[in-house]
Amino acid sequence: MLLLRDANTPAAVIRREDYSAPAFWIDTVHLCFDLDPAKTRVLNTMTLRRNPDVPAQALRLDGDELNLARVLVNGAGTSFKLDAGQLVLENLPLEGRFELEIFTTCAPAKNTKLMGLYVSNDSFFTQCEAEGFRRITYFLDRPDVMASFTVTLRADKTKYPVLLSNGNLTDSGALDDGRHFATWVDPHKKPCYLFALVAGQLVCREQRITSRAGKDHLLQVYVRPGDMDKTEHAMTSLINSVIWDEARFGLPLDLERFMIVATSDFNMGAMENKGLNVFNTKYVLANQATATDVDFANIEGVVGHEYFHNWTGNRITCRDWFQLSLKEGLTVFRDQEFSMDLCAEPSARAVKRIEDVRVLRTAQFPEDAGPMAHPVRPDSYIEINNFYTVTIYEKGAEVVRMMQTLVGRSGFAKGMTLYFARHDGSAVTCDDFAQAVADANPDSALAKLLQQFKRWYSQAGTPRLTTSTHYDAATQTCTLNFVQSCPATPGQEAKEPFVIPVSLGLVGASSGAALPLQLQGSSAAASDSHLFVMTQAAESITFENVTEEPVPSILRGFSAPVIVDFDYTDAQLLKLLANDPDPFNRWEAGQRLALRSAIQSIMAAGPAASSLDAAFISAMRSVLRHPTLDAAFKELVLTLPSETYIAEQLDVVDPQRIHAVREAMREQLANELAADWQWAFEAHCQNGGYRPDTLSSGRRALAGLALNYLCLAARASGDAVWPGRAYQRFKDADNMTDRFNALSALVHTGHALATPALARFHSLFKSEELVLDKWFALQAGCTDRGGQVLPAVRQLLKHPDFNIRNPNRARSVIFSYCSANPGAFHRADAAGYVFWADQVLALDAINPQVAARLARALDRWKKLAEPYQHAACEALKRVAAKPDLSNDVREVVSRALAD
Ligand code: PHE
Ligand code: ZN
Q1: Is there a cis peptide before residue 130, judged by omega within 30 degrees of 0?
Q2: Which of 232, 285, 718, 750 has the highest CB neighbour count under 10 A?
Q3: Which residue CA neighbors atom 3 of ligand 1 most closely?
Q4: DSSP 8-state code for residue 229
Q5: Average pLDDT over residues 179-208
Q6: CB neighbours (10 Å) of residue 259?
Q7: Which residues have a Cβ under 8 Å from the Cβ of 243 and sit 6 or more positions away?
Q8: Residue 325 Cα, ligand 2 centroid: separation in angstroms?
Q9: DSSP-derived pairing of the beta strands 116-120 and 123-127
Q10: Do 762 and 739 contact (CB within 8 A), yes or no?
Q11: Percentage of residues in the chain having pLDDT higher than 70
């Protein structure tokens, strides 16, 4: 009799401390696929041997939704059993190598989870990370089992002319019945999560390159036939990636052939399968007519990211999935550095840094303070797919960045070299990485503090750095006092102090000058910037010969992922905004001023209003009109902190109040700076021939922001000129950035011209799926004015172009509303939450991974004011009550509801 798992049985918790080495090693794998959408046959022939370090035991191979037809050991039948999805073989040879042959079938056309082998637009794709390979064949589906793969693909030649897998093509040819085959051999051992195959009607852009070392490589970008004109930027990004990794870290391309393939059905951004990266089309396809500057920048970053995984992730992989940040944090750090190094001007580097920190603070800080908080190296999970988080990725990258700060840029490169010398070809842990960086820099602060530093891997939560200063004019000394603390997180009540690298400086409170820093006890000033490495719960440092009252500039460049509490006066912040030599803190000062004013207005009695004072407005005007500052930097300064970021600063969150106050602030900026916005628009709207470089994209961003404010002011005054100009620009723009910014200005301000503009946009781009995603997302993310967004979203779900099975489309409508539009989502009538619950349940039946991401939209429900809190809790309970919920969604909602 078939035993079904009781729906109420809690799913198993996987714990890091339970790690044990595999009982068997798999040396070689030969996979032979007969590709058919309805029923694909997979013949898997492996050679295995026992791991001598582990007591003799049964072989347990993972499998999921497979139909098993045959199992042979050394060519003969054998006894086996199926236990909780695993294929269990008890009577295997005790000594030496043996061959195991497993024949299974699966149904790619029915695979809506997009894990394992699936069909998208009539082509075959695979996605195996983290545990998708078990949906293709029975295997030891864990990253510490690394094998040599040979893959033979067989398929109909007209339907699937292109047959790809990892490594090198060694054989191909025709078969009977109009079929053909291709055999691929991967020269590198790999864990099965890096396996990939692709089969379908695809075309490719190719480029041959010669590395510094003189080796020739073939680079290819595969797309659907109509998309060739959108592949140039991805190819350029790939070439830049190859060059950069060799130049900065001495890491060359280790393959003759490196392929990128785009698919429009993909759960994530992209995947680093060895030699055969599979990408969401969103991170490959771009030309000036269809993609914005942000898309171009994202493509560069993601192409780099996946390419850099070839070393950090593939050559050295993770011992187990708790070590995920070993590859992800490090590779995000590498792609961030890559994008910064490609910037021509130092100011563009600062802009990139600010953008990265903004992501960290609006997404990771809330995660770290909510029910899903987990350390960079988690201790347990139920569903690993839920741990591809901003903590693992972005906070993990900050941890690597702090290591670089503590050992210096060249010290870090030495650390990388030692890491590869020690561990190339193996599956290791986060400890191994940190140890290598420390050992390569024995005299560094990192080496001295390594054990304590590693608390960044084990303790969750965002540390708070409370700072105060004391200036003594008589002795000309300035003391900075620091106290660090970290709030409790689920399962971690008390925290030990972190190692916090605090980059800081002093700015003259009256002169605005960068003051020279002479540490007490040292004979002379070293420079005007100092790295203070904090290790205790409370510490102070004192500077001497401080000739005027200083304003402290703390955590320059965001040198650690912490919250800085300092009781700045407005005057001090205005000083930093105008004078701090550190562009990050200059931006930060403006954000603090805006945030403070927002919070005051939110807390005040009476209707929502803006209370930005004249000094702030005039400071913003000075930045906007500044003769030398970058347009991109100006755009960041003139953008108010997001509603989500404001909400994080409050103990009790009324999303409607936050939304109303922020909108009032935007209106005030729009009205009081009207002449300046006009100037800014006129001065930045012409940019010559389109190029997605940082300089001209900054100009377009600022012109876009200006247009948005001008339309907002027009809304209040009834003026028709600026909406008219926006419509004109929308029609005439020669690039998607300008066109979309103009459309957004009309849509967000709710102008009557938005309707014809949206209709025109749709008909212009009806055959461009990525552009349609923008069209859907803009409407679902539209500024709410009295509750009109939800009914519009419900209509969008009925639109003929909507398809919930396509993750990009589902994200563009459902996530844009539930996760990115707090002012529209949190409704007093609870209708937003009802919609959310409906969509989580609908998606869960199709694609649990995507559903679980949506489920996280209510993570912070306990902070909500009434009536929101109660209604959100009801919605969560309704989802949790569904008996056959996936592990993915169950883990998220039960953590949210736990007390
Ligand atoms: N490893 C991928 C990356 O970050 C992300 C990914 C995870 C993609 C799981 C698919 C599935 O580069
Ligand atoms: Zn990655």
Answers
A1: yes
A2: 285
A3: 271
A4: G
A5: 98
A6: 23
A7: none
A8: 9
A9: antiparallel
A10: no
A11: 99
